[in-house]
């Protein structure tokens, strides 16, 4: 394998760090010890710029190319974004309806099931029975169906494969083109 460029990042299918490389885990390094690498990275990935600078942190993140694609937002080196969980709000959910079927007869069943629907509660009974086996359905007024949902976040990840990203601490100083 040829000598890497200083600051080059490679993905490795190993759990350990190769000699002369460091994990891309956001750690801070001493400028005095890695002057050449600091001259390339600066404080783009953290550090105070006086005694320390940070390495890129790819732990649990995926790299994204810098620049602006057609119809996309400009992305700069060192910028981070995205979230691992998302909770949809009402404006983000496609328009849809929920229909509720019912019968206009007195209820005779006390438990829900595959063949029963909501029915009128017989006079004098506050709670049960609530269901009936219908001969025909009546669609309830849409205003009688309330909002539902738990407002819980869901995972927002594309399929992935974990690799160990490492950055070269030594190597050829990259020439500008």
From TrEMBL:
Domain of life: Bacteria
Residues of the Phage tail collar domain: 7-63
Pfam families assigned to the protein according to its UniProt record, in alphabetical order: Collar
Protein known as: Microcystin-dependent protein
